[in-house]
């Protein structure tokens, strides 16, 4: 078991991981999810003793990594698939690691076989594709036949066949009673691989729950409906009628209503009986990826925006038919209408505070019972 307690890591003024507490249990694949820069790799490096926590602690089987007797035989990890000497062959690279940990040479051939690299075992790894590099990294993690395995984004660069293979490998390792901790930024990938999820954003815990609970709560269908603009009385009446019929109704920012718990034909009947006209009534399915993005959208550090191509616009063009492009005061482009927020990112929802300025108590993580 891996156990983190109040784990915190700062690099100068940057707090990468803040007050993180969780357990990773044996016999399960535990997915470690978070957007780019959330602190997944930093956490994994601290678990492996490659970075010292600024505060808190993390143990494997009750011991810090550095205190473990013969750690490479107990813990295997894929952190960075490029961390190898490109001039060495795959086999030589693994032999080197095996010798350092007192692992017999025949084990090298076994793991090469497991990851499907036997045929290229004597080729220099610098010519390897990204996917082959990942396979070599996984072979290195498996060398000591460890009970605890950490994989940082193991499907990076793999083709669909490789992704399926990694998925099956993780599941098999967990079914053998091992502790498998695997990071990803893709919910869809974790939904197919993991039993349990730990979600972080801006270095803080956002959710710690079984994958099944996440799927049950987020993959149900829903209906979206819209009443005519301005018909507030009709809208309120419909909300009341739907609630009485056992539905959960949520107003959406676009003015639509999201309804769960009442089937589409029944919604239509209820609206008709209440004499409320509908402009829209449509079935929808929430995707897991959407649910995950909703959960973490406030914790995304790197957000793209429209390319403004500043200074690259040519002079205003005469459009066919004599229509003129709007021209701004400098002749470049017309300024946006007041309040339009030219290319501004969408407003963030419920962002966890940036850790350096955070209150000492981090926001409570999301757990299955919160949704009930
Ligand atoms: N050695 C370091 N020095 C300074 N800042 C660092 C260092 N390592 C990580 N960080 C910062 O800490 C934050 C967390 O980084 P980390 O690599 O752990 O995130 P991640 O969740 O693994 O992201 P990704 O999915 O993009 O790999 C980032 O803002 C990163 O820039």
TrEMBL record:
Biased composition (Pro residues): 334-356
Biased composition regions of type Low complexity, renumbered to the chain: 313-328
Record keywords, A-Z: ATP-binding, Nucleotide-binding, Transport
ABC transporter domain location: 2-227
InterPro entries assigned: AAA+_ATPase, ABC_transporter-like_ATP-bd, P-loop_NTPase
Transmembrane segments: none
SUPFAM superfamilies named among the record's database cross-references: P-loop containing nucleoside triphosphate hydrolases
Entry-linked CDD domains: ABC_BcrA_bacitracin_resist
Disordered as annotated region, ranges: 301-372
An example Gene Ontology molecular-function term: ATP binding
Entry-linked Gene3D superfamilies: P-loop containing nucleotide triphosphate hydrolases (3.40.50.300)
UniProt key word ATP-binding: yes
Family designation: Belongs to the ABC transporter superfamily.
Protein name, as recorded: ABC transporter ATP-binding protein
Organism in which the protein naturally occurs: Streptomyces sedi
């Amino acid at each position: 078991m891996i156990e983190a307690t109040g784990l915190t890591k700062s690099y100068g003024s940057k707090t990468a991981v803040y007050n993180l507490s969780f357990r990773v249990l044996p016999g399960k694949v535990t997915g470690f999810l978070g957007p780019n820069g959330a602190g997944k790799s930093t956490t994994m490096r601290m678990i492996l003793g490659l970075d010292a926590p600024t505060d808190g602690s993390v143990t494997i089987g009750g011991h810090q990594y550095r205190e473990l007797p013969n750690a490479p035989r107990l813990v295997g990890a894929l952190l960075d698939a490029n961390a190898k000497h490109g001039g060495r062959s795959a086999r030589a690279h693994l032999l080197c690691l095996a010798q350092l940990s007192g692992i017999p040479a025949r084990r090298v051939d076994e793991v090469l076989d497991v990851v499907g690299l036997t045929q290229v075992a004597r080729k220099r790894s610098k010519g390897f594709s990204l996917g082959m590099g990942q396979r070599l990294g996984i072979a290195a993690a498996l060398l000591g036949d460890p009970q605890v395995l950490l994989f940082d984004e193991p499907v990076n660069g793999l083709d669909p066949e490789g992704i399926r293979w990694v998925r099956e490998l993780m599941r098999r390792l967990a079914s053998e009673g091992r502790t498998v901790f695997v990071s990803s930024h893709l919910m869809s990938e974790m939904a197919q691989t993991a039993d349990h999820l730990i979600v972080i954003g801006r270095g803080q815990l956002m959710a710690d729950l079984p994958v099944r609970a996440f799927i049950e709560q987020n993959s149900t269908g829903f209906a979206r409906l819209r009443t005519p603009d301005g018909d507030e009385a009709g809208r309120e009446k419909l909300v009341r009628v739907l609630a009485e019929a056992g539905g959960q109704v949520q107003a959406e920012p676009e003015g639509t209503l999201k309804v769960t718990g009442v089937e589409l034909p029944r919604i239509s009947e209820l609206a008709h009986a209440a004499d409320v006209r509908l402009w829209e009534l449509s079935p929808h399915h929430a995707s897991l990826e959407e649910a995950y993005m909703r959960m973490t959208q406030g914790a995304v550090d790197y957000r793209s925006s429209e390319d403004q191509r500043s200074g690259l616009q040519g002079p205003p063009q005469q459009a066919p038919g004599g229509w003129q492009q709007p021209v701004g005061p400098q002749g470049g482009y017309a300024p946006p209408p007041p309040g339009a927020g030219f290319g501004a990112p969408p407003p963030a929802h419920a962002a966890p505070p940036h850790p350096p300025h955070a209150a000492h108590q981090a926001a409570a993580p999301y757990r299955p019972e919160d949704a009930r």
